[in-house]
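Ticket opened by: R.M.
Priority: normal
Category: complex prediction / small molecule

The reporter submitted a protein together with PXG and asked that the result be attached to this ticket for the collaborator who will pick it up next week. Submitted input follows.
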Amino acid sequence: MSRQVYLNGQLVPQEQAMVSVFDHGLLYGDGVFEGIRVYYDKVFLLDEHIDRLYESARAIRLEIPISPEEMTAAVADTVKANGIENGYVRLVITRGAGALGLDIRKTSNPQVIIIADTITLYPQEIYDNGLPLITASTIRNHPAALSPRIKSLNYLNNIMAKVEATDGGTIEALMLNHKGEVAECTGDNIFIIKKGVLMTPPNDAGILEGVTRYAVMRLAEEAGMEVREVAMTKHDIYVADECFLTGTAAEVIAVISLDGRQIGSGKPGPITQKLLGLFRELTKQGSFD
Ligand code: PXG
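Result attached by the on-call engineer:
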C-alpha cells in the first residue's frame, strides 16, 4: 500500500518522498531518528519520544527546523492520513544536503521525515518460550567516541552486533561496554530480576535510555517492586532468577539463556510475564497521565 509520507511540512505520496544524494544523513549517517508505536489509535508515549529526539539532535548540534509542538502535530497528521490504528512511526531528521565534506556549516535544509506504517511483530513463539541471547564481540560505542544516549542515524555499531546475533541463530545480542560491563542489546534494553528486585544497567553503562525501559521501571515501581539501576557483568545475568529485554518493537521479551547457559528456570519467568501484562495495559492507555 502506498503511504503518505510527511516531508518538510507536507504529506506526499511515498514515491515522491525523496532526499538528496548529497544529504549528510546518507553520506555520513549524520542525523537522528525515533521509532514509536501506535496502539489503539494512540501514539504511545509520544512526549517521551519527542523529548529524546530533540535531545539527540541537540547533542549532535542539529537544529530541528520545527518546534516539538509542531512535530507532535505532524506525527498525529501522518498517522491519521495513513489510517494507522496499530503500527509504527519512524521520525528521521537528517543534517540536509551539503558539500562533500564533514563541515556542518556547509549544509543546509535539514530534512524532517515522518513515516507511518504497519509493523511486523515478533513471532508469538518468542513471547511464549523466550529468547536465547548471545554476547556480541562488538562492544557498544565508547561514550567518548559517540554517546550511546544519542539515537543517531549511525547504527553500524549495533548492526554489526546484530549480524553476530543472526549468524548465531538468534535475533538479539548482548553488547558489553568498553569496561566489559553489560550495556544493552542492539535495539533493546536489558533487565534482570534477582530475589524480587528489578535491575538494569544505568545510563553511564553506555546505553540508549529506552522509552520502554522507562515505562517498565515506572510500572514496576507502581506495582511496589524495588527497582535499581546498577552496573552489572555477565555473571549477574548467569545467576539471575529472570532476564528480559525491553524495546519499542519487542515490548517485553523474556531471555532464557546467554551463550548457551540457562538463566533461571529456562522459561519466561512470572515477574517478566506480569510486567508484560502491565505494559500491555499501558499501551491501551497511551501514556501515564
Ligand atoms: N537500545 C538501543 C540501542 C535502541 O536502538 C532501545 C535500546 C530501546 O529503546 P525504546 O525507546 O524503543 O524502548 C533501542 C530502540 C528500528 C528501531 O527500527 C530501533 C529501536 C526502536 C524502534 C525501532 O530499528 N531501537
